[in-house]
Structures are given as structure tokens and as C-alpha cells.
Design goal:
alpha+beta, two-stranded antiparallel ribbon, single chain
Length: 44
């Protein structure tokens, strides 16, 4: 499976035009968009 490619952002959240694999973005500490989804039911 290929690694996910991520758009690199500047400090203002604007795309830089650079697209890198997830591991490289995290390795370099670059800005990128992220989303977290939490699903909670009555049992938590």
C-alpha cells in the first residue's frame, strides 16, 4: 500500500504547492491539515 500524500501548508494555512508522504511531513515537522473524529455512544 502506498503512503498517504499530504499537502504542506505555510504558517497561515495556505497550501505551499508541496506534496509529501505523511512520514516526511511529520519527520520535518511541517504544517498540514488534520482532522480528529471521536464517536461516543451511551457506554462511552
Amino acid at each position: 500500500m502506498k503512503e498517504e500524500l499530504i499537502d504542506v501548508l505555510n504558517e497561515n494555512g495556505i497550501k505551499t504547492g508541496q506534496v509529501l508522504p505523511r512520514s516526511e511531513v511529520h519527520k520535518q515537522g511541517l504544517w498540514h491539515r488534520a482532522i480528529i473524529v471521536a464517536i461516543i455512544n451511551e457506554k462511552k
